[in-house]
Known about the structure:
By secondary structure, the protein is mainly β. 8% of the residues lie in helices and 48% in strands.
Amino acid sequence: xILSELNRIFEGQQWKQGTMSNLxxxxxxxxxxxxxxxxxxxxxxxxxSEQRTFLFIGxxxxxxxxxxxxxxxxxxxDIGDGQTSATEITVNLPQGGRIEFxxxxxxxxxxxxxxxxINGVEQFKDSGNNTSFKHFAKxxxxxxxxxxxQYSKDGSVSSNDDQAYIDNLSITGVDTTxxxxxxxxxxxxxxTNDMVRNVTGSxxxxxxxxxxxTAVIVEVSTDQExxxxxxxxxxxxNEIQNFQQLMIRATLQTQNEQVTPILKSIGISIWEEARGxxxxxxxxxxxxxxxxxxxxxxSLAAYLENAKNIYIDDFLNDKSILYFEMPFNDPKTxxxxxxxxxxxxxxxxxxxxxxxxxxxxxxxxxAVTAELAYIELLNRVFPTIEINTEExxxxxxxxxxxxxWKVGIIETGYEDEVFSLKESRKTALWLxxxxxxxxxxxxxxxxxxxxxxxVKRIGSNRGASFRYRKNLKSVKRTITPPEATVIIPYGxxxxxxxxxxxxxxxxxxxDWYVSQGVPLSEARQKxxxxxxxxxERFILPGxxxxxxxxxxxxxxxxxxxxxVTVLDLSAITGLEEDRFYLGDDVRIYNEDLNLxxxxxxxxxxxxPQEPWRNEVELGFLEPGLGDVSSESxxxxxxxxxxxxxxATSGAAKTIGTNxxxxxxxxxxxxxxxxxxxxxxxxxxxxxxxxxxxxxMMNGTDIGPPIKQYMPAxxxxxxxxxxxAQMPSGTGMLEVQMxxxxxxxxxxxxxxxxxxxxQNLLGGLSSEIPRPxxxxxxxxxxxxxxxxxxHQAVAIVLDGPDRVNVGQHHSVEFETTIxxxxxxxxxxx
Length: 828
């Protein structure tokens, strides 16, 4: 015998006995008692209904193609050669019984068969082009039986329907006994209608939760003698449309004493055409404050109405924990599983720890710890991941691929923010948090919809304040001097910010000392406190500089932390002015301490059942409270490690006298470096010729051009060379080739190149768009013997000589001439 959820919610919470508005509850409580229905009988499934009377396991389905009677039969799914489709049921025949059914097979005779098994023993098999149903029947002794129908095909040929069908399944002797639970006594609600006298329409409004194996039955009556069952959204029966007092009777049923349904609210909407709608009854919202537990497959298992000592511990930009305890002997504790889901106050948690045992007083205990569902991202581990100058949403989507999480809202103005990273053996959660730090945003987790939002700042200033003797119970202030006035940041492979910081590899901030009256020059002499920031996440100097500046804004000022215990008055008064949330700016008053400061909520520990126990932490987190900004900083800067990039030409290519680019590699180089490049070429020269090979970065030659004379026939060429001071940045490394005459044929992957240097990202790619087109033009020397600097040049291409126009607007004609004027090229 168990007490129903309904009685606990309505009597133990908001719905007290007596009158609430026009709703009256009965005095007696509502409990559930078990009873049995059914017995030994015959169960038939003719497949006419969408619902099966037996629990079929397998991949068969209803069909109208062929049937012994009625409109439907049961058939296998479509399968190919060498495949099998099966379905089965298991029944208990405690006194023995009999199975009967009709069947038909339309298949390749002698090869594709319907087989029927009882407890794994084949009873018959059939094949061929049958046009009428056959009948099977067999008597069975007492026991439990598994009946299996299987259609299988051999390795080739499909004939006729290529299907098997069964119909009119009947099993005698089935134990249909079921244990159900019903209300003992009655629960009644009386609704009085004193507003509408000429009812022209009505609707019943019922809100309830029914886990698997449970049911809620609602009936209405005006005389408590004749009862009418009603459903949510249905109309009141015509006989009682114009009621003055309506009695509502609720019955809750369950087949499992660990799981019960829950009735949230009942209401009746009635109207007449001239007066509109009136809603009678009152909704209850208590269910929102009950922890819901789900099975591993996501099905609702139960409501934990007996959970106690509940608290939620939220850290800004860090973890979010749900903790609660249960009575040790509560049967619902068995439904709580590791990695199972809990839903509480519209947030989804994952169970991480279950503790049970005995305390020092000899009392048995059961406690559960769960963390917000972002920990699902710990299950996605990247052996390696490389994101190269991606916009924020695109890069984050690559991190979240393979999870059920998506990128949600991104702060306005940050959609185009670009970042890069290259990491190994990191989880998706770690990467998401690092990206937020790189771009300077904070993360909001929508755990119900699995969305990750990126905002500039969580929380706001709602005007909330903590005042001693009002809602401020205790306060402790800790002050530490500025930790640093200078930060020297290092990123990936020793990356510095000198290139984006006027040659200085550091940032400085003496604002606090200057505000205290110390001249800047003196502050630099007396209070220079250096801090080495080493963080391998950063591969772009601009991002590294911004992160160092933001960090120094906090470190260059005294760190003041406040630990306060406050009473959440909003839980009592319901006033918006008393509410506060994680990340909010709040004001602290304590006249005795002469304290009046505005600071930020960095941690909230909330006890929903006992708001007077709530705690918040303000200002900066004290050591040991999870200052995650320090956890991600590397202990040292790793020595720059060389990287190897390799690419091949892919499909076969033909190179002629016009320059072409048979091979390209997209590269990000964190700093200027020396590179070793190797080039291997296998080709066939169709005639004697000279081959010219150039290595180019973003259209500009790096290194000298390579020329190789080739007689007709096959050639293998290896070209190892060094490029000194390859410039930093992102670009396209390309191989340009052309011949003096004739052509060469390069077979598939006949051109290969490697780059061996420090600080490289990249690979065979075309993701950095750049025109890869080069033409050789010539002009008449007699027209332009001399070109003056800064002179606009119009070049008419009609002569045999060559001029190359590069991206720096240089013209090669006997000597190279730099010009800042436009160069107009036309073909004559």
